[in-house]
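Chain A, query sequence.
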Amino acid sequence: MPVVLIGVNINSKPNFMPLAWVSIVEHKPPTILISSSQSHYTNAGIKENNCFSVNTPSEDMIIPTDYCGLKSGKDIDKSKIFNVFYGDLKNAPMIIDAPLCLECKLLKTIDLEQGHDIFIGEIINAYSEDKYLTNGIPDLNKMNTFLFSMNDNNYWKIGEHIGRAWSIGKKYED
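Chain A, predicted structure.
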């Protein structure tokens, strides 16, 4: 699963939490879903501010990214871990060094009675430097992102291209 850092202001300070349960929901409007344990401090900030950011860290950010998951914002101040900036939503801090940052307005919260919240957010802005884009689109190889494997609790680099979606399957024959 891709690793992202969810950003939200809590008590007027930036807080970040790594998360791997993230998915695109709709194209128009661009909508994203994140799922987070209700025990996480970040959830309260999302509910309070009705917004959040989704920051895609690069491999060289792995140590502070993992640290943010080892420590709760309830116990430590995470506001100095990353250099931040804000877009239109003043309570959705984004990480300057992250290759891709999404600024999201909360549309809906679903309380799963098993202990998780699902947050659905409209992506109102996306931020990335040109060096991470190919033809204006984020390029995973240039971003040098990483994955989380839940079954063994390890991080993995993204490998090489193996085929084009909705195309390579045309080679299948019954």
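Helices lie at 41-49, 62-70, 140-143. The longest strand covers residues 100-112.
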